Amino acid sequence: MPALPALSLADWLARLEQLHPSSIELGLDRVRRVKDALGLVPAFPILVVGGTNGKGSTCAYLEAILRAAGYRTGLYTSPHLLRYNERVRIAGAEASDADLIAAFEKVDAARGDTSLTYFEFGTLGAMVQFVDAAVDVAILEVGLGGRLDAVNVFDADAAIVTSVDLDHMDYLGDTREQIGFEKAGIYRAGRPAICADPRPPDKLLDYARQIGADLRCANRDFSAQRSEGGWTYRGPHACWTGLPLPVMRGSFQLRNAAGALAALEALQARLTVSEDAIRAGLAAAQVPGRFQRIAQAPDIILDVAHNPEAARALADALREQPVAGRTLAVVGMLADKDAAGVFAALREAVDAWWVCTPASPRAQGAVALAAILRAQVANAPISVQPDVKTAFAEAQRVAREDDRILVFGSFYTVAAVLDHATTQQ
Fold first, then answer.
1. How many other CB atoms sit within 10 Å of the CB of residue 14?
2. Per-residue pLDDT tens over the stretch 8-53
3. Are 64 and 126 part of one and the same domain?
4. One domain for residues 277 and 370
5. Angle, alpha carbons 366-403-332 (nearest 5°)
6. What residues pair up with 230 in beta bridges, in sequence order?
7. What total number of domains does the chain contain?
8. pLDDT digit string (tens) for 186-239?
9. Is the peptide bond before 200 cis (omega within 30 degrees of 0)?
């Protein structure tokens, strides 16, 4: 019998989407069984980053600083914008199709009849690659929540909760206290537990104390203070002054950077980083889709903000960088997001809106989204378009050189415009 043709990466990803009856099923039992079958016991330090917003940026700071310090890094993030390969980076380079496929084959062979979700399969596949590549340190971004997320099957040597706000409420609860408890689940007894949120929920603090974590909180144990042309980090045992402002825009980025530095300070005995490495990493760290400018005259800004906290941060960034003309927004969101809260945060910052339906089965329809927007925005014009590219083209058609076009609301929305821009180059 002839051998079956090898599966391509696209084939594998399509298969992973069908392996489990639901796309999300929180819990660690199935993942732990397959992890044990794979014999995954990483010897290198692991940093786990959770939180409502700021996870991707914090991971980027950690990766850039550690790489500048000479470490071979493994980075696992989600979701991706254009290619699945973006989710797994080794020594700063995206994983190849061949390495992803080889890792998926190992996970598949080890799982037996255990069913895994797309994210669970990918998480184990990423760690297989990090072990095979003999990285010096792994940085893992939580997918959803923390306590029951697949990433939490690995014990963090230091864990960071970047922020706590309302998102994924169907899974995590509908209060900051409930969500804070879920986020705190990545903390470990006796190990650094960083909370970069300036208003930590009591349940997060209580959990950290109950398990005996080495809890370090923003504005209590460490801080970021902006100064003329730079900023200062102060921690329990370190003070780094005159640091360069992050390349990524927004005052909230200092909070993300400070959370990363707090974790690295706590691990200095095991992962030594110099002040020069910190400076180089802060100047280099970037993440696509986070206040990303892809064109000028008019400016085109992409931001994946999709919950109220992220929208408030986006509004602040827009105010910090005013334009002479108008701000024209192209927005598409998923149906499970707090669209009203997002629009309330941005209504004063936007002059005209193009509402669309992103290409996702979980998308909020443009007509329904526009109705939510109209309840929040009294006077600004609103145009309803069938898809992201049509909405973006209409905004481009009316934009003047001194305007800016803001594309936001979902990874799917940003990805569609980024893909369009890439193919036009």
1. 11
2. 999 999 999 988 776 667 789 999 999 999 999 999 999 999 999 9
3. yes
4. no
5. 15
6. 227
7. 2
8. 999 999 999 999 999 999 999 999 999 999 999 999 999 998 889 999 999 999
9. no
For residues 295-313, b (16+ Cβ closer than 10 Å) or e, as one string? eeebbbbbbbbbbbbbbbb
The radius of gyration of the chain from alpha carbons, rounded to an integer in Å, stands at 21
Q: Residue 92's CB: how many other CB atoms inside 10 A?
A: 12
Residue matched to tokens 């003047």: 400
Return left, alpha or beta for 170; rule: phi > 0 is left, psi -120 to 50 is alpha, else beta. alpha
- Report which residue type is found at 42: P
- The mean pLDDT of 338-354, rounded to a whole number, is 97
Residue 175 lies in domain? 9-284
Identity (one letter) of the amino acid at 402? D
The Cβ of residue 22 has, within 10 Å, a number of other Cβ atoms equal to 7
Residue 268's pLDDT is 96
Angle at 19 between CA 17 and CA 25, to 5 degrees: 80
250/336 same-domain check: no
29 and 163 in a single domain? The answer is yes
The two structure tokens encoding residue 217: 């909180």
CA distance 189 to 198: 22
265: three-class secondary structure by DSSP: helix
Residues 275 and 307 in one domain: no
Tell me: do 366 and 387 sit in the same domain: yes
